[in-house]
Amino acid sequence: MMSAVLWMLIFATQGMFDSTRTMLGAGILGQCGFYGICLAFFKRTGTLHEDQA
Predict the structure, then answer these.
(1) How far apart, in whole angstroms, are the C-alpha atoms of residue 36 and residue 30?
(2) For residue 51, what pLDDT is reported?
(3) I need a labelling partner for 31 at 20 to 30 A (CA). Which of 10, 24, 41, 53 fits?
(4) How far is Cα 39 from Cα 8, in angstroms, rounded to an integer?
(5) Tally of CB atoms within 10 A around 35
(6) Distance from C-alpha of 40 to C-alpha of 44, rounded to nearest angstrom
(7) Cα(first)–Cα(last) distance of the chain, in Å?
(8) 13-to-32, 33, 34, 42 alpha-carbon distances in Å
(9) Contact 17, 26 (CB under 8 A)
(10) What pLDDT, in 10s, does the model give residues 1-53?
């Protein structure tokens, strides 16, 4: 869900980017950053696996 929100924000502000490549790179790096933050959070809290109750 966050990925879709990130892409909608990027397309809404596409006037700020010089080219399509820059916009695409920002989207990919943004998703990688979000994934890294989520991974670190879930490793820290110990809720990494779905099968844990």
Answers:
(1) 10
(2) 62
(3) 53
(4) 23
(5) 12
(6) 6
(7) 23
(8) 19, 19, 19, 30
(9) yes
(10) 777 888 888 888 888 888 888 888 888 898 899 899 988 988 888 776 666 54
- The closest alpha carbon to 27, from 2, 51, 44, belongs to 2
Question: For residue 10, which amino acid is it?
Answer: I
Reduced to 3 states, what is the DSSP secondary structure of residue 50?
Answer: coil
| Predicted pLDDT of residue 33 | 92
Place of tokens 């990925």: 3
Please give the structure tokens belonging to residue 38: 């989520």
Task: Dig out the tokens for 17 from the structure.
Answer: 């980017």
